[in-house]
């Protein structure tokens, strides 16, 4: 038995949707705006499955986007994954201090290594990280060999 068609709540015009789609710079959100614009067009009605194939999303995802659109309007299109990552291990002040320290010699002499960065951060601020993180910081701060 086929799915009943989902309604499309017209929170804005087709032209406004097209403008929002074209202006969007976030790749995930841009695909959602594109899908909504295609669903909103009345010159060529399309199902969520047809739109999904056109924009490279699954039909389930397009239906989810449409449901969020119907309930929340334009606010439902935003990528809710933003800001859900882990907090930085170092504060901005600590990163600046680490950058300054990396310009000089390590406490035990020689050259900075990932292990020395890990030890320095642990001793200075009681922050425990893996050697991979120390290496990433070395590279990011331009101090890797």
Automatic annotation (TrEMBL):
The keyword Nuclease applies. It comes from the Bacteria. Keywords: Endonuclease, Hydrolase, Nuclease. GO terms for molecular function: endonuclease activity. This is Uncharacterized protein. It comes from Gemmata massiliana.
